[in-house]
Amino acid sequence: MRRSLVPTTVLCLAALALGGAAPPEVRYTFLLSGNRAGSATARAVSDREQVFTFEYNDRGRGASLTTREVVDEQGVPVRVEISGHDYWKNPVAETFEKTGGRAVWNNAAEKGERALTRPAFYVGFNTSPLEGEVLARALLRAPGGRIDLLPAGEMRLEKSGSLRVSAQGASRTVELYSLTGRSFEPDWLWLDEGHRLFAWYDGWTTLIREGWESAMPELSRTQESKNSERIREDAARLAHRPSGPWAIRGARLFDVATGAVRPATTVVVTGNRITAVGRDGEVKIPAGAEVVEARGKFLMPGLWDMHTHLSSVAGPLNIAAGVTTVRDLANDVDLLADLSRSFDTGAAIGPRVIKAGIIDGPGPYAGPTKALVANEKDALAWVDRYADLGYVQIKLYSSLDPKLVSPIAKRAHERGLRLSGHIPNGMTAEQAVRAGYDEIQHANFLFLNFLDGVDTRTPARFAEVGEHAAELDLGSPRVRSFIQLLKERGTVLDPTVNLFEDMFTARPGEIAPGSVPVADRVPPQVQRGFRSGGLNPSPEKAQRYADSFRKVLALVRTLHDAGVTIVPGTDALAGFSLHHELELYVEAGLPPAEVLRMATLGSARVMKRDAELGAVEPGKLADLILIDGDPVARISDVRRVTLTVKDGVVFDPVAVYATVGVKPAV
Q1: Which residue, of 74, 135, 157, 352, has the greatest Cβ tally within 10 A?
Q2: pLDDT tens, position by position, 69-86
Q3: Max CA separation in the chain (angstroms)
Q4: Which helix (H) or strand (E) holds 418?
């Protein structure tokens, strides 16, 4: 599942009186995938000072913060104090102060200062969604609706409409604003008549005035409609659909089945199908066809990411990175339907989507889903609903009653669906496989098979692996017996090793290892998030956690060598994270050609789509990428995608990246 649903760099809670006294206290409800998960308050101390609280629970994780913020006459912060704990329960003691023309700030990842010649807005490192109100009100006063951000960047504000909403017998008009410049796409927020926050929604999480929760569906529909206008314009401008047959000539073609690279190859595409593949000069290119001169670039099938949780921004990030197919392993049913449809119809830039539906049990650590079941009848009803909606897989989660696994497996298999997931608390991975799992998500659950008494619903499922994975003897009879069971049952593994590198080895203030290659390419405030660290073990445990990550890589190598099927998935930032997942497999000792096969034909075979996808062959769907390099020799060259073709539609990755504020690779 998604790790940090309210990242450390998202916007904070505040209210500012600019033309009227602030109310004594405003209360908000925080929703996670439609379920209540926390709350926030804003309390006025004076017309320039507020105290805010924000707390939420995300499966035992989640921030709890108190913020004191003082602003100047322009609504720009001059003093900020934030305390509490962050998403991973690390202590927070953050400060910012502007005195005269100098700003100074200190948080877990940054210690900086800067001389200022014009107003600049400090964005808290550990904050909540409601800083948007303070920022919006400052932007409403700023020349041109623009303001510099600290430590870096610029924010722009634009009004996008208004709406009359009603709840509990009351009505009011609220205004929609977009704030552009912080992330890959605009932040959206709703302000009331006094320009104070009414609601904030990002497609996954929601903050809304207490008592007005019933208005959220109308607000979200209006916001998504506005956001879709921008997305449709980008798609229409950047998607090139050749009017007739076209060709790529002079490519070095990667044969995924054999691992060989064929020089001087021509590929002809007609519509959305590959119609011819062969040596230059031997394949006839139709008269008048467009021709892409590859000039020796590396041609291969589009990549697959087998563990995603899609959002609108994930579409362009995947396509620009050469990821043409993804498997979504838990999302809101309606949101996923809309995203998949928009990607398929060309209303938005995005990959093919294979759908897997989540089922969990109720409780304090329940996953962010409405599919929460406590009995067999409800569990089977959700299996049937997902099957009827065209889903091909069920993903079980950690709070599910283990007694429900076998009947869910039976019904899923009867309906032609695969079964995978986390390991429900009270089960082991071995028991889950014997009960009908076709696949296991996340390498930590493999280690937990050998650690007794760990509550898999809680963050202990990460910390205990960080503490003890290094101790596991991969050659022991018990481990070998388990691996043999996986092989005999044909159990597939989706290890998401990039997550555990970040959790176990990333340190506050340092760019996370997997993000180093792209940190300078993303918006400055996104880059800040790369410096937040992971589980942040104590200094005396840091080496143990690093050793445990090395054991994660060793396990991947051991499983691969034993013939267990592995599929590359990320559960992380779209596009970029898949590149790093593949790099980590090579670091573990897997041959690059085999890793590329896993990310193409191997994944297609697991999902029974290899008749149409996963290779560059006549008759297959035209999902192709050109790479300026040789990822068989240097797997990191997979980052150098210069052309992406999805379903016969051609995209320039540089232009697609530009729509989400990402600079070209150099």
Answers
A1: 135
A2: 999 999 999 999 999 999
A3: 79
A4: strand 418-421
